[in-house]
Write a structure and sequence with these properties.
Arc Repressor Mutant, subunit A, transcription, mainly alpha, 10 helices, DNA-binding, Homeodomain-like_sf, single chain, AcrR family transcriptional regulator, HTH_TetR
Length: 201
């Protein structure tokens, strides 16, 4: 049997990526509407237009689907693009501005996923594990940026990563945007300025 042609392989990869996104989008809506515990795999499959076996083949379990939502969040919030931009600069102010942009884009574009993980983590171990993975990725990104700032020769306050993680938290965003009525532009500008004044000596 002849080997797959490159074009056929790429088409297959695109189809698979589209299937995964369709499943995750369906799960995202159902988890938000019904809750994680009350959403069976068969309902996600029905909503996505795939068989339950397809979901099990790609994700292994409902907890695996939930874990996939963290990957979806990264993609929809544009995190890979921001990471690539961070690798192209050594300017501390620009790097802190990128952290502010990430925080804004995560909350603005994927606030529903963040809220679902936050509210469900206290009652469901699968959700708690997924939330912990999201927090781990966030901290790694923050530590990478702080490390790049230090490597540039700029003095940074002790425990800088802890300060950044606290300022970028969902609670701060909720307090300013949801409760105080700030725009996302206001929030991003404030966060950038606060990170600069709090971290750089």
């Amino acid at each position: 049997m002849p080997a797959d042609l490159p074009g056929i392989v790429r088409l297959r990869d695109r189809r698979e990526a589209l299937t995964l996104r369709t499943i995750l989008t369906a799960a995202r809506g159902l988890f938000a509407e019904r809750g994680y515990a009350r959403t069976p795999i068969r309902l996600i499959a029905q909503e996505a237009g795939v068989s339950p076996q397809t979901i099990y083949a790609h994700f292994g379990s409902k907890a695996g689907v939930l874990g996939g939502l963290v990957d979806l969040l990264d993609d929809e919030a544009g995190i890979p693009d921001v990471v690539a931009e961070a690798h192209r600069t050594d300017d501390p102010v620009a790097l802190l501005g990128l952290l502010a942009r990430v925080a804004r884009q995560v909350r603005e574009r994927c606030g529903d996923i963040v809220a679902m993980l936050s509210s469900g983590a206290a009652v469901d171990p699968d959700i708690a594990a997924t939330q912990a993975e999201g927090a781990r990725r966030n901290r790694l990104g923050v530590e990478m940026v702080v490390g790049r700032i230090r490597a540039s020769g700029r003095a940074v306050v002790p425990r800088a990563a802890d300060i950044v993680v606290a300022l970028m938290s969902a609670d701060v965003h909720t307090s300013l945007v949801t409760e105080a009525g700030w725009s996302h532009d206001d929030y991003e500008a404030w966060l950038k300025e606060t990170l600069i004044t709090s971290l750089l000596r």
